[in-house]
Amino acid sequence: MPRIGLIAGNGRFPLNFADSARQGGYQVIAVAIKEETSPDLEGRVEEIHWLHVGELQAIIDVFLTRGIDRIVMAGKITKTRMFNHLHPDARLRRVFEKTPIRNDDALLKALAGEFIAEGIHVCDSTTFLSALLPEKGTLTRRAPSQEEHLDIQYGYELAKQIAGLDIGMTVVVKNRAILAVEAIEGTDETILRGGRLGNGGVTVVKVARPEQDMRFDLPVVGTDTIRTCIEAKARCLAIEEKKTLLLDRAEVIAMADGADLAIVVV
């Protein structure tokens, strides 16, 4: 069987990738990140190696010693880990020295360069998962109201600008006012903050970068996102077509319908 490597972050994205790769006839050799990756990954892959996020050389060595020349990065790493408990090895320290601007896009591209230098190709994170990229349209029973459509249009343009600056990919809007902008805290905390500030009834807009590198950091929406929207008393969630991975689609839509939350792909 052909083999493919996986660097697995948190959430369900790595699990979905592993399941789809195996269904496609591939053995998955996974590097799981301690304190990030779900232990549920173990039963879904041929091999799993638990390492700390700062052990770049050890991660590369796992793939080299097993003859892996293609890998996928799936799932996020908690961004604040960069400021605590990182403990970078010598190779990762050299990457940091060569990367003075350490936003997500710059760091991920620098890391991809280290794998490429070793003859390991970094594939699109949507490999085996293109069916999870939704097309334009309303997914839920309830479509956005006219007021929510106006907030989506306003939020989309601003979210694209923020994503282009590599600040974040999500904004929370109400009455054409931006209540919260995603930064290093992540999507869920942004949604909750916006919901509190807007006293509910908010619209959440999540986009990809204007020049999205499909190899990594693709926007992902799943059941956790919907639970957060419900907790924040959001009324509408807008995501970007063909550039957002929608996990557990049937469950996501059922949860949203039960909470009268509109989901629209724009």
Structural commentary:
About 35% of the residues lie in helices and about 20% in strands. It has two domains: about 5-120, Rossmann fold; about 135-265, Cytidine Deaminase, domain 2. With about 270 residues, the protein is an alpha/beta fold. The mean pLDDT is about 95. The strands form three sheets. The protein has a six-stranded mixed sheet. Strands 3-2-1-4-5 form a five-stranded parallel sheet, sandwiched between helices.
Distance between the termini: 39 Å
How many separate domains make up the residues?
2
Biggest sheet strand order reads: 6-13-11-9-7-8
Query: How would you describe the shape?
Result: globular
CATH architecture assignment of the largest domain: 3-Layer(aba) Sandwich
Count the DSSP helices: 8
Helical coverage, percent range: 25-40%
Helix vs. strand class: alpha/beta
At the first level of CATH, the class of the largest domain is Alpha Beta
What is the makeup of the main sheet? 6 strands, mixed
Total beta strands? 13
Q: Tell me what portion of residues adopts beta-strand conformation.
A: 15-25%
Element-by-element helix/strand order: EHEEHEHHEEHEEHEEHEEHE
Rg over C-alpha atoms, rounded to the nearest angstrom: 19 Å
CATH superfamily of the largest domain: LpxI C-terminal catalytic domain
